[in-house]
Amino acid sequence: MGVSRWTQTQLESGGWVRRMFEEGQRLRLVHGDAAVIDLSLGQPLAAGSAIADAFREAASERFAGRFEYMPNLGYLDVRERTARDVDHPGVTASCIAMTPGAAAATCIAIRTFVESGEDIIGTTPHFAEYRLYAETAGARFVPVAARPDMTLDLDAIAAALGRSTAAVLLNSPCNPSGHVLQHEELHGVAELLRAHEARTGRRVLLIVDEVYRRLLYPPQQRLEPFAYYENTVLARSFSKDLGIAGERIGYLAVHPAIAGDAVTRGLELAMRALGFVNAPATAQRALLHLDDWGINVTPYRERRDLIVEGARAQRLDIVEPQGGIYLWLRSPFADALRFVEELAERRVLVVPGVAFGSPDHVRLCFSYAREKLRSALEVIASMAPAPA
Ligand SMILES: Cc1ncc(COP(=O)(O)O)c(C=O)c1O
Question: Ligand 1 centroid vs 101 CA: distance in angstroms?
Fold first, then answer.
């Protein structure tokens, strides 16, 4: 039985992050864990003991229906607690859908608000899975290049907006560039979308993927997208900041101005239609056993500083990450794939920029042990000067 043409195409053209991760696992089997520096997958740092305690308490909770199906958008008390996590007036439980991570939150937003055949504008470099999320809903992902400093190119977004545009999908902090959306950018996009609606009658949804929202490095501060534009949804997650990516828990927050019965029913339907049904019960309950959802950003910031200083010392062409867990590096080799391959031969694994729509870059994840980061920098230094 062959796989579908769409699946075949995706398998041939994409999946770089997972491919490198699998290569890392293969190398670990052959050479042992210590000999491999795998900076490919965006793994968060290990979860603290408070998280393990919260999961233990959640697992031992007993109430009627504890192991039964539940409302598709999650337990009401969890949604109420989550609504308080969204710092915007008017956000209540009815604006919240608990989901298996930000991935599912983005997918249900697209399924609920975008018609098949319509366009979703994103910015390059972009998270590799966005194209899959769009195409799964029959939509088209239309990437528009960011400016060299990684800020939004508002003119390019304006030029891409058309009658078939249903949504703009932004990511802040950005995977892979580490860029954090600034006031001028959010204000600019909101103005563009309002002007587009006034001209065409077409209301465009803004989806902001905030999976790394608590991983911000001073002086960066998070701006609230809801304050800029009403037709906005936020895809959020506990995968990265709480270090529980495997537990699959996140949520979609819908701006109170567009929340309502039809949207609630639509999101419930999308949860079923995409096969998620509901976010994992124990992970939802665990959130209620945590006094505080804040995180200590220091271990991440220290690693960010270590990798940035090391890269600068080698005069590598980088964009300093303002948030998130990645270093976005212009390949020191003219052929970035060759650079990635040569690193892999030295048992250092990174992801080629082609996975993010920018073939001349590579992405390193820096939320790993400091020794591994130092070793990776040494290997890169040993490969300079760059062959043409
Ligand atoms: C930009 C971005 N969005 C979404 C996701 C998926 O996150 P989650 O585990 O919350 O589904 C990731 C994971 O790496 C990501 O980098």
Answer: 7
Phi, psi of 195 (to 5 degrees): -65, -40
| Three-state secondary structure call for residue 261 | helix
pTM of the model: 0.96
- Whether pLDDT at 33 is above 90: no
Domains and CATH numbers, the chain: 5-48+296-383 (3.90.1150.10), 63-288 (3.40.640.10)
Ligand 1 atom showing the smallest separation from residue 250 Cα: 10
Atom of ligand 1 nearest to the CA of 100: 11
- CA 321 vs CA 102, 151, 272, 305, 307: distances in Å: 21, 12, 37, 9, 10
CA of 326 to the centre of ligand 1 (A): 13
258 Cα: distance to centroid of ligand 1 (angstroms): 24
Q: Coil, strand, or helix at residue 374?
A: helix
Buried b (16+ CB within 10 A) or exposed e, 113-149: bbeeebbbbbbebbbbbbbbbbbebebbbbbbebeee
* Whether residue 237 has its Cβ less than 6 Å from ligand 1: yes
Q: Residue 55 and residue 47: Cα distance in Å, rounded?
A: 11
The encoded tokens of residue 94 equal 């009815």
Whether 30 has a pLDDT exceeding 70, the answer reads yes
C-beta 43 within 6 A of ligand 1:
no
